[in-house]
Structures are given as structure tokens and as C-alpha cells.
From TrEMBL, chain A:
Residues 130-205 form the DNA polymerase delta/zeta catalytic subunit N-terminal domain. SUPFAM superfamilies: DNA/RNA polymerases, Ribonuclease H-like. Belongs to the DNA polymerase type-B family. This is DNA polymerase. This polymerase possesses two enzymatic activities: DNA synthesis (polymerase) and an exonucleolytic activity that degrades single-stranded DNA in the 3'- to 5'-direction. Keywords: 4Fe-4S, DNA replication, DNA-binding, DNA-directed DNA polymerase, Exonuclease, Hydrolase, Iron, Iron-sulfur, Metal-binding, Nuclease, Nucleotidyltransferase, Nucleus, Transferase, Zinc, Zinc-finger.
Automatic annotation (TrEMBL), chain B:
Keywords: DNA replication, DNA-directed DNA polymerase, Nucleotidyltransferase, Nucleus, Transferase. The keyword Transferase applies. It is found in: Nucleus. This is DNA polymerase delta small subunit. Residues 176-386 form the DNA polymerase alpha/delta/epsilon subunit B domain. It catalyses: DNA(n) + a 2'-deoxyribonucleoside 5'-triphosphate = DNA(n+1) + diphosphate. Heterodimer with subunits of 125 kDa and 50 kDa. PANTHER family: DNA POLYMERASE DELTA SUBUNIT 2. GO terms for molecular function: DNA binding; DNA-directed DNA polymerase activity. Pfam families: DNA_pol_D_N, DNA_pol_E_B. GO terms for biological process: DNA strand elongation involved in DNA replication; mitotic DNA replication. Residues 28-154 form the DNA polymerase delta subunit OB-fold domain. It comes from Cajanus cajan (Pigeon pea).
Length: 1085, 433
């Protein structure tokens, strides 16, 4: 049925495609954003256009329909069955209030949408009605029930003024007087009157708060400003807290309590309306701790960039999209396909779909998303690149119907720029793409959050976690492959598929689904919050939940900024630097900060203000004075909420660990392990929450007390150890504390056997634990032997947990991962530590360093070890200070714009020799260029700026004259510099053969050796051939490795991954090989 | 006492293994795989119609789920334990010292079949990952299973190549002596042992009977590792002239010993992994400047490794052992002879080259392809002497010989050209009880 068959195509909708309104979302400021349902929906005209479009693509549709979700059972259809589902995403929209469910309301109202999956794999969209946004203010003394209605009227009036163009009938729905208590400070009274202000829409909470903050004129009371409570709680989170829903748990809606929606708005199989009071939230235990079979889509796109430019959606087409769909809990993907622009040869096990136009590719992908209906969308850098690119590209091609990727029918995806800033993660610019009902899980973001790595390229992350190298095709080659034939596009497709496959592998390998769902369950926030928001919302969610049980409310204190001053951090005991060749026992406090908070009942609600301390007359035995001078009541007067949360977290962790031991099913194990990890992280983040000065509810009295106790404990431990373990007390040696960190103390008991040190360590831990308030506990875990202590927070040692064999080499704060060091430094440091600690061969280590330095000076060092890389984040002009990598990128652009690095690329460079006085940034050079032209590197730079500091740091505790011995010895005397082949003068030089033996110029008639060296022919030949032999071995190993990485034996290696450790080496091997062979050929005359 | 030494006609077939003017110009290894696949596929395609007349022949791309067909391609073995050069660079240095396993196989290893169009994972019992290695080209009968694997039902190797006819039996006994692993200059080489061997071959030893046997020796082959160059000394470091001349001394010693043989009968010397030759296969002949004494004789021939030649129309193929040693690291067999047999059936001397065995990056050919079946196939530098006659389906007969390391065993192998029987000559000077 083509209704509009004869009509001309409707012009593109007048409404601009997804508006990009840049907005600053500071991590710590939570703002609701109301989205009006009809705003995002397409008009009926447009919808029919799309429908027609779908008909046109019938063929594709049948292909896609293979992958739809399992059909609904009859009892679901007739609604005779309760719907039980695991929710993954909760949001809200503004719609008309539901007439049947809420006969007494009218006008716009917030509708909560819960998206989830049943255990049969059906998708669910549950529209929850009747939950209203609200917050509290403290009821001013003297305000009675009558005053409330007048207050209501005044507030309503002010709200109407502030929101003039809103057509909401009633802004403030009602004001109730309730009995609550503020969480702040110890109070003797149990409760006091509060006003609960219920407003019509979630955004009105902020606007109402603003009015009350600034002050409002009240009859009889005058101008009054109010401190608001819980006015910064996101609406969806408010709903979850009030309904006891935690992220990723199971929800049941009993039969008869839900109505199928009249006109389904979503693509979900089960869509219904219900009242919020009818929801049953199941705690994640037993049957309900399992995971539903979510559909996880992993995808990657390829764009054909122009030479010399990073792909831009305004110019460069999307040429391929690879997809992989996996059901949660299964190890094989359900669907593997790739959509290509122009023909592409088939790939085994992969559904290849080729299209003639880009429009078709994009629309095919949209249809694919709709049919497959993924619950979670994953990929690498999809949030910042792939998704926004697709959407902007479609907007550029004027495909208005493309961005309907969410679960809501005809609702466009929204893109906005955000800045995510957090103390812990730093400031990052990002794009936020709202795909309604689907959770986005960008593996790049996860990696950056959860792991400290030297590089976050997919290549190096996969190499690190999966031991899988991936071929890296430079984006300038991508266009060539695209413009080739079906075979070359197939090559590209294989590459694209791998990029879609690796994120899924990472997700599986690192158990992210389990860990994040469990984190959501433990902290109670939706899964999407875990990635898009900082740490504090997790603690806030737990605090709000606990406070609600206790009838407490949280004030919305003005952000204090950093003016409140900082407090003394966790100082450490001074490190007695040295190389310890006797076992060092390490005594650790188990969860020190949480234990301190529990032991001393530190909380918002137990803190006594200085005035109160004087006024309230609390008996001294009922309070604790902390070392930082604060007063907190003990738990017999008031049990703190934070200690209670911590207690629950730690008990739950113990239980999870115990269950983990019992569990047999690997999936159950994964859940439990994820849970115990989430519990541990959560417990540790509570302290940080109280100390975050721009946080939600900072309370420096708590955090400074915690650290002051911590310091005291370390000092106390040191004193006890050194007092008790002495020869006077009958021990063999006097114990000595050589170092103490935040939560551990290193003790040298003087004994030389690991086992004895372990026994003494255990004894000390037990003895000292006895002197602490519970649950603070000192544990003995490990022995370092030998131990190289460089300075505070910098050490290395062999790690022993059992007396017979060490577990590993442990290092902290030593240059092994920093990116702006060249590989040489990392290898040198590692190998030296290895020699010193494991081989116990200090002379060997010294010799090793000397050889390396001599190799460097004699130009024998492998170039790949000298490459330094830095990310190019903006173009040259934007940098204020000249930097080596920026200057180089500029120079490379002049040489060849096509292969020069662009913004966003990492720029590898080496420092080369240049005229005296040249600045370091002028001496940077492209390693490939250096290799090709024999440009001499600057060994002095590497010696002074790269190697010397880290090496001296290691050797100073060991050697007396480390610097003199290592950096200025006889091994630094001879220097050899290669002659550049591109310098001017050499072009005019006539090449004359020299003797291979003694480098003397050869007279005519001699080709290889001078007459003087003739007698040493055999040995000199051996030398030449041995060089060839070594290079051949290297050449073979390097190039077969690349062949292996790219996953094809019959095709040439194209990879240009500069992150790859053998990239330069392989290039060099090729060049050296040719040279060595020509040397060898000189013998065949 | 004039005893005449027997003579043989000799034809070298080493031309294919000479690298000559070919150089490294940035070519990669894909070309040799491609050349090999092309060569082998033409061959296999000619056999397939006899092997499975009723099944279609597909490419990896043309596979359809459930449809039984024959495909031909290069095998790639995914090996968990295979040492990887990347690890030497990027991985944290392992604390536990790396023990060099002699075999890198693991139960999780699996095979993948690849042609120019794509690759597919193989499953099914008929094809065992422990038997095949990366680089084999085979034909497979099977079908694509639902999971995208190719379920193998039957495997076809190329089989033994055709053989030139064995020369009509003469009544005369003529012997070829095969020696390997002299390792002159190494700590366990024993000069006396070697001198005894020379004296035996040249007829300076024993009574008349023994001398008459010696006179029937027509040819000697040194199958690699004749000297030992301390490779450690060579790794890029500048050598002290003292070390250099020490190294040259063992070569001089070898030259003196070889010239004693060359004075009385023809000898072939092949390079091996420890000789002063290049590393990659095919190893090029040892330079004559190393042998100023013996190379003066026209009986002295410096050859390639692999080495291929004909003596009185009996065809020999031999290597200094690298091909078989490498197979032993990456696959499994009951003995070394079985590995040798497999290389013949695969028609390829060194299937693991270039993957794990160094090899020159050929661009247009694969010299390791065995076109014609040898009558004698020997491999040097093995742990012990082993031999067997292999019979081919078309009547081919091949004498397989593992030549032991002489410096360790004191054993050389005597092969009778008349009937290809062989036995050992033992010059051990130390006997353990």
C-alpha cells in the first residue's frame, strides 16, 4: 500500500536534525532534562515515508527478520501472566498523564520508562505512571498548616513567573508537612517538621530550588530563603530509591496490574502501563541474581577518509559497518555481519550485505538495529566516534529517517557535546548520544576508567589483555582498499569485523557485564550512570537509600569549591632508601579507611559541631575526639549511617566471597566475583565522597579525621613493632620499620629466612591488631625479599606469600609504563631490576647498563627502542609552547600531507643530531625517515634526558658512585655516528670501495680486501656472513609474525601500527638485510 | 698394491637452491605462500577428480552450509605456545626463566585452511593438528557446519612425487659415505675420530680387505655443521681479533682434513646451522675462500642446503637437518623417519618455512617443492642413525636416512649405490659400558 505513491517526496523535515546544543555537564552537578515525548517524534507524514521505505527494502527485511527475538507466548499476549524482567535502563519522558490509571490528574506528567529483558529473551518497555518529583525544605518555625497553603500559592506564583512559556497547569502540585531529620550533625531530637514540595515535572525541582535558595517573600515571615534537601537527586534515581529498585535487578509486574498500551510507542515486544506502586522489585539474590539473555551488539564503522585528513562526516562516506550480536552468557555470537558500500566478496561465517549507495548502507544498519533490538551496544570509541559519525553523516546526506536507533518508535537519537570532568578521571570532552532504551558501553571509556595503560589504542589494549595483535590499517590506505575491487573491500571488511569482534572479546575476558551489573546492583544506580558519571553518584545513591530508611534527609549544600581548604593527606613514614637483602615483612591494614570510619563511628549524623559540643553536654565517654580535633558521638548515642553502609558492604563482600568458594556454575561464579569486587570498590569510595570538596555532600571533618587516624595508626604500629621486637625482649634482632605507606608498614625483622620473617610478621600483626578498636585489623600478607627502596612510593622487590618460592616481581612508581619514555628505558629498568632482584647479580646489572649505554653511543641500538610517542591533540598553532611532536607533524605535512599525522593520532619520533644549540623540539624526526636516510640519532639526548634519571634512581641505593660509574665510565668514551645519506655534500662524493677488514681505500683490482688483510680472508668472511645470518633470522621472525597478525598468509602485510613493538624493527630489518647482502656479494668476484 | 678407486657420474641439481642475484627489495613472505599454493593446487586439482569424482571443488569463499565439497588451501596452525617475537619486546619480562621446550604443541591448537579468498577453521577427526604444520597445502573433503567451521571428512596429501627409474642394477658395489656434524672446533669434537674416518675413506687403514672396501667408496657427503662457529661471539658485537683468529683456526683445521679426502675422492660439503653460511634456507654454498687448501682440488664441491644431486643416475636429496628439526618442534610423529616421509608425501622439503624456519622471501617460486622423488633422502645432524625404505603407491622406492652427528656418535653412514642398502661405520673412541 503506497499511500503517497503519486505525491512528490516530502521535503526534508523543517525541524533541524538532532540539535547539538553544547551543554556543560559537570560531573558533580546532576540535572534532569525533561524530554517531551512528542518533540522527538516524527510527524505522521514522515512516518509514512519511512514505512514506504521499509517496503522498498523488503528483501533486506526478510534477511533481517531471521534475527528477531523469540515470539511471545499466548499468556503474555492475553496478559494473564506476570511480567518479570531484568531492567537495564530507566529514563523518563514527559507525556500526558494516564487517564485510566490516574483518573484524578491531568496535564503533562513525567512517565518513567523501564527497559529490560525477560528470562525468555523478550524485550520489555514498562511505562510507570504516578511517580512525582519532589524535594524537601526545612519547615520554618511557626509555620502551621494554614501558612502552608499560602506558601504554596506564593511559590506557584513565582514558578509561573520563572517559567512563563510553559503551559503546565499547576507547577507545584502540593506541599505536605512531614517529620524528617537532617543528616547533618548529631542531634538529640528525633525529628522536626519538613515540607515536602511535590512539583509537576522533574526540571521544576531545580527551578523551584533556585527560587527558594534566593529567597521568597512570605506573609508574616518576611523574606526567607530556604536550604533545600534532596533537590539534586535525578528523577530516575529518585524513583529507583523510593521503589527499592537497584541497577540491573529484576522487576515483577503482577498480572492484572498492567495494561497493554493503547498505541505502542516502542519497538519492544511487551509494552505496558502501570502504576509505580504496583511494581515489585526483587533483591538480586538466588534466582534473581541471574542475568537475562540480553542482546549485546558490538559494531565498528569504516570511513573513507581523504588523503591527509582524518575522516569528517561532512565529507567522508561511511563505507562499512561490521556487527556482532551475542546473547549474554553465550560464548559464540548469534549474528556476524558486515554492511558494505559497493560489492564485497563473501567471508566465511559472516553475512556480507553490499549496497550501491551510502544511504542504503545507513538505512540497512538502522533496520538491523531495529530488528535485532540490542539491549547493550558496545564498541571501541563508539560514543565519541562511531555513533556521532553515523548520525552526523546521515544528517549531511539528509537522511532524516536514519537516526531512529532507540527503542521508541520514530524517536530520533539526540547528540550533544558534553564535558565530563571528575577529580579522578580528569576532564574529557565527549559526545553524548542518547539511544533510548539501549545501554551504551564504550570499551574505550571503560579501559580509560578501569586500567592504567601506556596506550589505549584497541591494538595495544587487545595485545595487553587478549595477547592478540591486530592489524592496523592506516586510514589513508582504507580509501585505496575501498576503491579497489570486491576482494580489497573484503580485506577491509575482515579488518572491520575484527574491530567489532575485539570489544566483545574484551568484554568477555574482563567480565565487564558481570562486574558492571553487580556494581549497579550494589550501588543502586542504573548501569548507564556507571560510565557516564563519576564516583560520587554511587555513594550518594547508597547514602540516600540508607537515609530514607532512617527518616533522614540530605541537604543540598552549596558547592563549596576548593576554598574550604585542603587537609593533610595520608602522609607516609619516611622511606629509608636502600637495597635490603634481608626479608622485609609487610603489615597491611585491611580496608583501612572503611575500618576507621566504622571503628570510630564517623558520619555526618554523628559529627558534633563545636557549639553543640559545648551546648549539648554530652558525656565525654560517649564521644571520640579524633586526632584532627573533631568530635563524633559513639554508636550508643547515634549509630552513623556511613559506618552502617560500610558494614553492610563489607559483610556482603564476605558473604559473596564465601559463596564464591561454594559456587560451581561458572556463570554464578562470575556474578559473585563481580559482586565482591564491586563491594570492595564501593566501600573504598565512601571516604573519597566525604572528601570531594566539589562533591555532593563534602564533609572534611570526616575525611580529615579518617586520614589523621590513619596516620596515627601507622605511627602506632611502627612504635609497637620497634618496642616489642627487640633483643631485650628475647628476639634475635631488633626490628626496624623502614617504610610506611598509606595502609602498610614495612618491617625488617633482621632475620634472613623468609619463613622466619613470615612467622614474625604474623605474630606482629596479631599482637598489634589486639590494640586497635574493632574492626581495624592489621594483617600480614607478604614478604619482600630482596627489596629495593628508592624513595617514598617508589620501590621494587620480589613478592613472597609462601616460604618456598616467590610469586612475582612487584614494582611501584618505577618507569615501566610511562608512555613518554622510549622502550629502551622500560626494558633497561626491567632488565636491571630482574638482574638485581632475581639473579642477585649487581655487577651483571651494572655491566648490562654499561653495555646498553655503549651500544647507544656506538649507534648499535635498535631504533624502535628509541621511539617516543605523544598524542597530537590539536594543531600546531593551538599549542602555546613548541613541542617536539607538534613540530614534527608540521614538518611531515610539508613532506607528504597524505601520511602525516593528524589531530588525534599519536606521533612517534626520535631525537636526532642537529646543529649546536638547536632546541629539542627542532630535533625530533620521523623514525621511518631516520631509517631511510641514515640520520644519526642523538645518543647524548637519550643518555641525559631518558636513561640517566630512572637508572640512577635504581642504582643510587646500591652503588656508591652510581652516576660516575654508570654514566661517565670508560664505556662512554667511544662514539660512532652514522653518516646521513641525504646530506648535501655526500651527493657529490665519489664512492670508493674500502677494505672490509681495515677500511683502507682499495686500489684498482681489489674488490674485497686490501693486500694486507688478504691473509685474514676466512675470518673476515665469517664475520660478514654471520651478520647476514643474524639479520636473516630476525627478518624471518619479524615478517612471519606480521603475516600471522594480519591473519592471512597469502596477502601482503599492510599494517602500519606504530604502536606495535616490531614496526620499526621490521622496516629496519628489511633495509639492513639488503645492505648486508650487498656486503656479502662483494666476496663473490 | 694398486687398488683402483671406483668412479661415479655426478650431476648437481642445486641450481634451484642458488640465490644468486636475488636480493631483498622489500618483498614479503606472502609471495612464496602464494607460489606454493598455486603450484600445489594445480597438482592437487589434477588428483582430486580421481580421489572424489562426485564432489564439487570449492574455494573457501564458495562454501555453503551443509554442502559437501572439496577445498584446497594452505594450512595455518594456530598454536598457543608458539614463541612470539612480540613478547620479547612488549611483555613484562617473565620472572620464571623461560625453559625452552623442545616442542610447542598444545591440546588447544587448531588448524585453519586458507586460500587467496579467505580462511576457515577446521574441525573433525581426520585432520589432526598434531600432524600438520603451517604451510602445508592439502585438499580436504568436508562441509561447512553451522558455526562457520569446516568439518573435515577426509584429507588428501599430494603424495609421493613421480620417480625417475632406478638405474639397472650393476654387479658392482659402490659406496657413498654420509657424514654430518663434524663440529670441528667445538668442545666435543674429537680430532682423532675424524682422522680415523679420513684414513678409512682414503684407504690408509686396515688390511687389504678393508682397503678394498675403501676403494669402493665413490663419494663423500658432509651434511652440515662441519665446523662450529661460536655464534654467541658474533651477535652484532665487535670481535676482538683474538676471537676472530680462534674461529678461523677451526676452519683451517677443517680445510686440512678435507684436503686429505679431496686428494683421493670427490666430496660434497653442505652448510648447516653452525657453519659460516647464511641462516635462511636455502643455505648457500660455503665460500671457497674458507678452504684455500681443499678447494684447489676439483673433487671438492661446496653445495647448497638442501642439496640435490645424482650419482650414476641415483637421485639424492638431503638437508642438514633444519627442516626435520623444525617439524619436530611444531608437530608430532613416532620417529624422525616419519617426519621425513611426511615431507615427501607433502612434496615439500621444508613446509614450515617461512613460518618458523628461516627462508629467503622468494617472489615467484617455491624451490622447496619436490618435483621428482629422490631415491635417497637423507637428513643430517640427527640424534641417532635411523633408516627405512619407503614405498610409494606408484612403485617409488626411497631410502630414508637420518645421519647422526658425527662428533657425538662417531658414526658415518655407508650407502651402497647398487641396492641402496646402508650400514654404519663407527669410529667411536670412547665406549660406555
Amino acid at each position: 500500500m503506497k499511500k503517497n505513491g503519486s505525491r512528490k517526496r516530502a521535503p526534508p523535515p523543517s525541524q533541524p536534525p538532532p540539535a547539538k546544543h553544547p551543554s556543560m555537564t559537570q560531573e558533580e552537578e546532576f540535572m534532569d532534562e525533561d524530554v517531551f515525548l512528542d518533540e522527538t517524534l516524527l510527524s505522521a507524514d514522515e512516518e509514512s515515508l519511512i514505512l514506504r521505505d521499509i517496503e522498498q527494502r523488503q528483501a533486506l527485511a526478510t534477511r533481517l527478520s531471521k534475527w528477531t527475538r523469540p515470539p511471545l507466548d499466548a499468556d503474555y499476549v492475553v496478559q494473564s501472566r506476570s511480567v518479570v524482567f531484568q531492567q537495564l535502563e530507566i529514563d523518563y519522558v514527559i507525556g500526558e498523564s494516564h487517564k485510566e490509571l490516574l483518573p484524578n490528574s491531568s496535564g503533562p506528567a513525567a512517565v518513567i520508562r523501564i527497559f529490560g529483558v525477560t528470562k525468555e529473551g523478550h524485550s520489555v518497555c514498562c511505562n510507570v505512571h504516578g511517580f512525582e518529583p519532589y524535594f524537601y525544605v526545612c519547615c520554618p518555625p511557626g509555620m502551621g498548616p494554614d501558612d502552608i497553603s499560602r506558601f504554596h500559592q506564593t511559590l506557584e506564583g513565582r514558578m509561573r513567573e520563572a517559567n512563563r512559556n510553559s503551559n503546565v497547569g499547576k507547577f507545584v502540585r502540593r506541599i505536605e508537612m512531614v517529620q524528617r531529620r537532617s543528616i547533618m550533625y548529631y542531634q538529640q531530637s528525633n525529628s522536626q517538621p519538613f515540607l515536602k514540595i511535590v512539583v509537576a515535572l522533574p526540571t521544576m525541582v531545580a527551578s523551584c530550588r533556585g527560587i527558594l535558595d534566593r529567597g521568597i517573600q512570605l506573609d508574616g515571615l518576611g523574606m526567607k530563603s530556604f536550604l533545600t534537601y534532596e533537590s539534586n537527586v535525578l528523577f530516575a534515581l529518585r524513583f529507583m530509591i523510593d521503589c527499592n529498585i537497584v541497577g540491573g535487578n529484576w522487576i515483577e509486574v503482577p498480572a492484572g496490574k498492567y495494561n497493554k498500551t493503547a498505541r505502542s510507542l516502542s519497538y519492544c515486544q511487551l509494552e505496558f502501563d502501570c502504576l509505580y506502586s504496583e511494581l515489585i522489585s526483587h533483591p538480586p539474590e538466588g534466582e534473581y541474581s541471574k542475568m537475562a539473555p540480553f542482546r549485546i551488539l558490538s559494531f565498528d564503522i569504516e570511513c573513507a577518509g581523504r588523503k591527509g585528513h582524518f575522516p569528517e562526516p561532512t565529507h567522508d562516506p561511511v563505507i562499512q559497518i561490521a556487527n556482532l550480536v551475542t546473547l549474554q552468557g553465550e560464548d559464540q555470537p548469534l549474528i556476524r555481519n558486515v554492511m558494505t558500500l559497493k560489492s564485497c566478496s563473501p567471508i566465511v561465517g559472516v553475512d556480507v550485505m553490499s549496497f550501491d549507495t551510502e544511504r542504503e548502507v545507513l538505512l540497512a544498519w538502522r533496520d538491523f538495529i531495529r530488528e535485532v533490538d540490542p539491549d547493550i551496544i558496545i564498541g571501541y570509541n563508539i560514543c565519541k566516534f562511531d555513533l556521532p559519525y553515523l548520525i552526523e553523516r546521515a544528517a549531511n546526506l539528509k537522511i532524516a529517517e536514519f537516526p531512529i536507533l532507540g527503542r521508541i518508535r520514530n524517536s530520533r537519537v539526540r547528540v550533544k557535546d558534553t564535558t565530563f570532568s571528575s577529580r579522578q578521571y580528569g576532564t574529557r570532552e565527549s559526545k553524548e548520544v542518547t539511544v533510548e532504551g539501549r545501554v551504551q558501553f564504550d570499551l574505550l571509556q571503560v579501559m580509560q576508567r578501569d586500567y592504567k595503560l601506556s596506550s589505549y589504542s584497541l591494538n595495544s589494549v587487545s595485545a595487553h589483555f587478549l595477547s592478540e595483535q591486530k592489524e592496523d590499517v592506516h586510514h589513508s590506505i582504507i580509501s585505496d582498499l575501498q576503491n579497489g575491487n570486491a576482494e580489497t573491500r573484503r580485506r577491509l571488511a575482515v579488518y572491520c569485523l575484527k574491530d567489532a569482534y575485539l570489544p566483545q572479546r574484551l568484554l568477555d575476558k574482563l567480565m565487564f557485564i558481570y562486574n558492571y551489573v553487580e556494581m549497579a546492583r550494589v550501588t543502586g544506580v542504573p548501569i548507564s550512570f556507571l560510565l557516564s558519571r563519576g564516583q560520587s553518584i554511587k555513594v550518594l545513591s547508597q547514602l540516600l537509600r540508607k537515609a530514607r530508611q532512617k527518616n533522614l534527609v540530605l541537604p543540598n549544600v552549596k558547592q563549596a569549591g576548593s576554598e574550604q581548604g585542603t587537609f593533610e593527606g595520608a602522609t607516609v613514614l619516611e622511606a629509608r632508601a636502600g637495597f635490603y637483602e634481608k626479608p622485609i615483612a609487610t603489615l597491611d591494614f585491611a580496608s583501612l579507611y572503611p575500618s576507621i570510619m566504622m571503628a570510630y563511628n564517623l558520619c555526618y549524623c554523628t559529627l558534633v559541631t563545636p557549639e553543640d559540643a559545648r551546648k549539648l553536654n554530652i558525656p565525654p565517654e560517649s564521644v571520640n575526639r579524633t586526632p584532627s580535633g573533631e568530635t563524633f558521638v559513639k554508636s550508643n548515642l547515634q549509630k552513623g549511617i556511613l559506618p552502617e553502609i560500610l558494614e553492610e558492604l563489607l559483610t556482603a563482600r564476605k558473604r559473596a566471597k564465601a559463596d564464591l568458594k561454594e559456587a560451581k556454575d561458572p556463570l554464578e561464579k562470575a556474578v559473585l566475583d563481580g559482586r565482591q569486587l564491586a563491594l570492595k570498590i564501593s566501600a573504598n569510595s565512601v571516604y573519597g565522597f566525604t572528601g570531594a570538596t566539589i562533591g555532593q555532600l563534602p564533609c572534611l571533618e570526616i575525611s580529615s579525621s579518617v586520614t589523621s587516624y590513619g596516620r596515627q595508626m601507622i605511627e602506632h604500629t611502627k612504635k609497637l613493632v620497634e618496642d616489642k621486637f627487640t633483643t631485650l625482649n628475647g628476639y634475635e634482632h631488633n626490628a626496624e620499620v623502614i617504610y610506611g605507606d598509606t595502609d602498610s608498614v614495612m618491617v625488617q625483622f633482621g632475620v634472613s629466612a623468609v619463613e622466619e620473617a613470615m612467622n614474625l610478621g604474623r605474630e606482629a600483626a596479631e599482637y598489634i591488631s589486639g590494640t586497635f578498636t574493632k574492626p581495624i585489623k592489621l594483617e600480614f600478607e607478604k614478604v619482600y625479599y630482596p627489596y629495593l627502596l628508592i624513595s617514598k612510593k617508589r620501590y621494587a622487590g620480589l613478592f613472597w606469600t609462601k616460604p618456598d618460592n616467590f610469586d612475582k616481581m612487584d614494582t611501584k612508581g618505577i618507569e615501566t609504563v610511562r608512555r613518554d619514555n622510549c622502550l629502551l628505558v622500560k626494558n633497561l629498568v626491567n632488565d636491571c631490576l630482574h638482574k638485581i632482584l632475581i639473579d642477585r647479580d649487581i655487577p651483571g646489572a651494572v655491566q648490562y647498563v654499561k653495555t646498553a649505554i655503549s651500544d647507544l653511543l656506538m649507534n648499535r641500538m635498535d631504533l624502535s627502542l628509541l621511539v617516543i610517542t605523544k598524542g597530537l591533540t590539536k594543531t600546531g598553532d593551538d599549542y602555546e609552547v613548541k613541542a617536539a611532536h607538534v613540530e614534527l607533524a608540521e614538518r611531515m605535512r610539508k613532506r607528504d600531507a597524505a601520511t602525516a599525522p593528524n589531530v588525534g593520532d599519536r606521533v612517534p619520533y626520535v631525537i636526532v643530531k642537529a646543529a649546536k644549540g638547536a632546541k629539542a623540539y627542532e630535533r625530533s624526526e620521523d623514525p621511518i625517515y631516520v631509517l631511510e636516510n641514515n640520520i644519526p640519532i642523538d645518543p647524548q639526548y637519550y643518555l641525559e634526558n631518558q636513561i640517566s634519571k630512572p637508572i640512577l634512581r635504581i642504582f643510587e641505593p646500591i652503588l656508591k658512585n652510581a652516576s660516575k660509574e654508570l654514566l661517565h665510565g670508560s664505556h662512554t668514551r667511544s662514539i660512532s655516528i652514522s653518516t646521513p645519506s641525504n646530506s648535501g655534500i655526500l651527493k657529490f662524493a665519489k664512492k670508493q670501495l674500502t677494505c672490509i677488514g681495515c677500511k683502507a681505500l682499495l686500489s684498482n683490482g681489489h674488490h674485497t680486501l686490501c693486500s694486507h688483510c688478504k691473509g685474514r680472508e676466512a675470518e673476515l668472511y665469517c664475520k660478514t656472513v654471520a651478520q647476514v645470518s643474524d639479520l636473516e633470522m630476525l627478518f624471518g621472525r619479524l615478517w612471519t609474525q606480521c603475516q600471522e597478525c594480519q591473519g592471512s598468509l597469502h596477502q601482503d602485510v599492510l599494517c602500519t601500527s606504530r604502536d606495535c613493538p616490531i614496526f620499526y624493527r621490521r622496516k629496519k630489518a628489511q633495509k639492513d638485510m639488503a645492505e648486508a647482502r650487498s656486503q656479502l656479494d662483494r666476496w663473490n668476484f | 698394491m694398486g687398488m683402483e678407486r671406483v668412479q661415479c657420474s655426478y650431476h648437481s641439481q642445486d641450481e634451484a637452491f642458488k640465490i644468486g642475484k636475488e636480493t631483498y627489495r622489500g618483498q614479503q613472505y606472502s609471495q612464496i605462500y602464494f607460489a606454493r599454493l598455486h603450484l600445489m593446487r594445480t597438482l592437487l586439482y589434477s588428483i582430486v577428480p580421481h580421489w572424489k569424482p562426485n564432489f564439487p571443488v570449492c574455494t573457501v569463499l564458495g562454501l555453503e552450509e551443509g554442502k559437501e565439497c572439496v577445498i584446497v588451501g594452505t594450512l595455518y596452525k594456530h598454536m598457543k605456545l608458539k614463541p612470539c617475537i612480540l613478547d620479547e619486546y612488549s611483555k613484562e619480562r617473565s620472572v620464571v626463566p623461560l625453559v625452552k621446550p623442545h616442542n610447542f604443541m598444545h591440546p588447544d591448537d587448531h588448524l585453519v585452511l586458507e586460500d587467496e579468498s579467505g580462511r576457515v577453521k577446521l574441525s573433525g577427526n581426520p585432520i589432526s593438528p598434531s600432524e600438520y604444520v603451517t604451510g602445508n597445502v592439502v585438499a580436504l573433503l568436508g562441509k561447512e557446519s553451522g558455526t562457520g567451521d569446516f568439518l573435515v571428512l577426509e584429507v588428501l596429501d599430494a603424495g609421493l612425487p613421480p620417480q625417475i627409474e632406478f638405474p639397472i642394477k650393476s654387479r658392482e658395489d659402490k659406496y657413498v659415505v654420509l657424514v654430518s656434524g663434524l663440529s670441528v672446533g667445538s668442545s666435543n669434537s674429537n680430532p682423532l675420530q675424524f682422522q680415523l674416518l679420513i684414513d678409512h675413506i682414503t684407504g690408509h687403514l686396515g688390511d687389504e680387505k678393508e682397503q678394498s672396501i675403501a676403494s669402493q667408496i665413490a663419494h663423500v657427503v658432509f651434511a652440515g655443521n662441519s665446523v662450529e662457529i661460536p655464534r654467541r661471539l658474533l651477535n652484532g658485537q665487535n670481535l676482538a681479533s683474538k676471537d676472530l683468529s680462534k674461529m678461523a683456526e677451526s676452519i683451517k683445521e677443517l680445510d686440512i682434513l678435507l684436503s686429505q679426502i679431496a686428494a683421493s675422492l670427490p666430496l660434497d660439503i653442505m652448510p648447516g646451522p653452525s657453519d659460516p653460511s647464511n641462516f635462511s634456507l636455502p643455505q648457500q654454498p660455503l665460500h671457497t675462500c674458507l678452504f684455500p687448501g681443499s678447494s684447489a682440488y676439483n673433487t671438492f664441491r661446496s653445495c647448497t642446503n638442501p642439496h640435490c644431486f645424482e650419482l650414476d643416475n641415483v637421485r639424492f636429496l638431503g638437508t642438514s637437518g633444519q627442516n626435520i628439526d623444525d617439524l619436530e618442534k611444531y608437530s608430532d610423529a613416532k620417529d624422525k623417519l616419519e617426519f621425513m616421509e611426511r615431507t615427501l608425501r607433502w612434496r615439500h622439503v621444508a613446509p614450515t618455512a617461512p613460518n618458523t624456519l628461516g627462508c629467503y622471501p622468494y617472489t615467484d617460486r617455491d624451490p622447496f617443492f619436490i618435483e621428482s622423488c629422490p631415491h635417497v633422502y637423507f637428513v643430517g645432524n640427527q640424534d641417532k642413525f635411523e633408516t627405512r625404505v619407503l614405498k610409494g603407491s606408484e612403485g617409488q622406492l626411497v631410502r630414508l636416512i637420518c645421519v647422526p652427528k658425527f662428533c657425538e656418535s662417531g658414526v658415518a653412514v655407508m650407502l651402497n649405490l647398487r641396492d641402496l642398502e646402508c650400514y654404519t661405520l663407527s669410529f667411536g673412541t670412547q665406549f660406555s659400558s
